Amino acid sequence: MAIDRHLQDGVFDPEAVTALTAAYEEALRRFGLVDRTDPVTELIAARIIACASMGELDPLRLCERALKGISQMSSSEPDGSRLQAQEYRQCAAQCVALAQRMSLHDNKARLLQMAQQWLDVADDVERRGKGIGAAKGIQQ
User: Fold this and answer.
1) What average pLDDT does range 36-40 have in this prediction?
2) DSSP assignment string, 2-33
3) Does the global pTM surpass 0.70?
């Protein structure tokens, strides 16, 4: 499941993981997604994690925020890859900002690791988006 990969680093406590998983499952149900390998599931998981990283842990609000963000993606791009990448980079910046305020080394390290993961996902989304655009004959 896409969200499980994001939760493996142990940043969230067990109660938060339960809330995030419930939000993820509800979002997939609302979107009608059954195939857990669909790329949209990764996007939903990332958006839920981003909202939770900013302190939101209510499953319904997490679900609604994730779906709202997806529905607002740019329709001018084939898959909204630039907008997605930009959002992921913003999440990375938020993790770095939080890490700078942390006093415990372990928490700083986890947040910086999470920031790097957001940047890696952003790069991957851009690469895939360029490939999709090129395959469709669209210049990005």
Assistant:
1) 79
2) HHHHHHTT--S-HHHHHHHHHHHHHHHHHHT-
3) no
3-state secondary structure of 55: coil
pLDDT single digits (tens) 54-94: 888 999 999 998 888 666 553 444 556 777 787 888 888 87
List CB contacts of 113: < 8 A, sequence separation 6 or more. Answer: 9
C-beta of residue 66 within 8 angstroms of C-beta of residue 23: yes
| Torsion angle of C-alpha atoms 140, 81, 40, 12, degrees rounded to 10 | 160
Write the CB contacts of 72 (distance below 8 Å, at least 6 apart in sequence).
none
Distance of CA 55 to the CA centre of its chain: 14
Query: Of 60, 30, 61, 67, which Cα lies nearest the Cα of 45?
Result: 67
- φ and ψ of 56, to 5 deg: -80, 125
Q: Which of 9, 38, 7 is nearest to 22 (CA)?
A: 7
Helix (H) or strand (E) holding 82, with range, is: helix 81-101
Tens digit of each residue's pLDDT (9 = 90 or more) over 116-136 = 888 888 888 888 776 544 444
So where are the chain's domains? 1-72, 79-140
